[in-house]
């Protein structure tokens, strides 16, 4: 169970710890290293928290012992004292002063132990952490037998049944080892979250779950319709722990105070509680009149409140927002506070090593996302540190959270049980964040290349959904990609670059789109040895994420005559195909597309990836191209062609007809009246116009409409060479809402 610690007296145990790699026979180390009086003076030191890959330990799979001495500050004495670990990857055992406290499994979920009776309040204390992060013992089997120059170990391999619950951190495409035999390289092991002493009173509020409803009332005296009444209903499940050993009677109440705006506090929900020893769960309910709702940044203000829950002498504060997010199962469309919204989204991961995350890094990333007019973020398949979600609350990003399961995991009874406990933790960790909009229990439960597939969709996923629903019965819970109207369409990335999009069935939730590319040479040199760069050593490149078959058989990238040319060719292709995927999906807004998420914001490690930015936050070419077309108003061109290919050269023989549809997509809540829409076809060389049109019209709110037909019979004597159709939309005041272009060639 997750315990909340915000606002409690705390003392950090971060900083210098002694450490030692476990080199003893099974179990023997605990007899020595866990003892408080063990001589660790010769052990090296390490600053925690960290992922040990980033330290002198490196890519080590196994067990590391950590020890340090501490004293209990006076301000933490007198109540119950706990030691809290924000995150330890992956198996943790903890001792204090020779007292074994317990075991924990997981890589993202915080845990704590009551150490009140184990510590010497006025003396020296020793805490010991045993952190086990072994390789998962799954077998890896070659799953693709392709005619390419890769050695057998570097061909595509598939895990049979992973038994650790680590999602992206153990098995995904763009990470160390990639899709080879070495898929688990790049360990994420380590105590990567803060370690703290936490003090609580003897009767304390342990956890709260806050659920909100927008007030609705039927107009009995009028038109008989159900209408918002301006209020917000706040219902709180309060877990209270009584450690006194006797039944306690305590008064409880709830106060809701505006946090991001000025306004009066609302107090109520008073109850008298009879609390037996142990843990009790009670309900407090409060109506907030004239409630301010939480919105994504582009549809309103992300207003937040503070809930203060008081039980006896204890109180706990939690930030939350009043909102309702609903999913229309028939259409796949999203409604926030009753308003339909289109999600221009981004998949995000801070790093393969989450200890690198901090408010400064997230602030820079999220500000760039705001500049790109992104309003939704998909976290999959891992869990970010809590502060990241707090920033999304404050900035108004709607978050789609995916539980840390990615590809090839076991469907055993034991695995289902352990995963269910962890997904309950994930729900309790995040349920109160206003930014959380929806959940997925598994990234891609049916992506297996081996003939004997685990039955995860019908076994594991169903139980996980049921378990998460007991924590959060209000939000939509998705079972996994390629089901329930969700799909991945990465043209030239995972799907072939020559796929006919007019023959492709498109689902409402495009939970991944995009393509791969090669980072800049400066970045490439940080992880590929110079002698493997050119000519490319394909095994080395495959290990670091090239995916030979996808690059040369799917995307059909031209290697060129130099490394620089190869990089430019791949980056140029990614930029174009991503731009045209965005245009294609947004032309199909609500027909049926309701959300779209680029894969990824940034590469999670130094690798050949698929981000807008590489691991060092250096941009790929696609960054500026995407920024130009992810605007709330988009003018775009859908050419008449069969097959309809994205990212490919567009060639028109002289005497043929250049034709297509001009689309304008408007994601604003209101009509744009008096908009000026223009298009023109120009020669690239001389810049002169050959045809065009300008007209005025209204852009309906929340729409995607064909605004014009473009037809240009290419003259038989037209100058051969490059041409461009340029498009623009401006508002009545002359402000540019969208500018776009498509290049083609006349031969």
UniProtKB/TrEMBL annotation:
Residues 39-128 form the Glycosyl hydrolases family 2 sugar binding domain. Residues 332-480 form the Glycoside hydrolase family 2 catalytic domain. Residues 228-322 form the Glycoside hydrolase family 2 immunoglobulin-like beta-sandwich domain. It comes from the Bacteria. Pfam families: Glyco_hydro_2, Glyco_hydro_2_C, Glyco_hydro_2_N. Keywords: Glycosidase, Hydrolase. InterPro entries: Beta-gal/glucu_dom_sf (IPR036156), Galactose-bd-like_sf (IPR008979), GH (IPR017853), GH2_Domain-Containing (IPR051913), Glyco_hydro_2_cat (IPR006103), Glyco_hydro_2_N (IPR006104), Ig-like_fold (IPR013783), Ig-like_GH2 (IPR006102). Belongs to the glycosyl hydrolase 2 family. This is Glycoside hydrolase family 2 protein. It comes from Georgenia deserti.
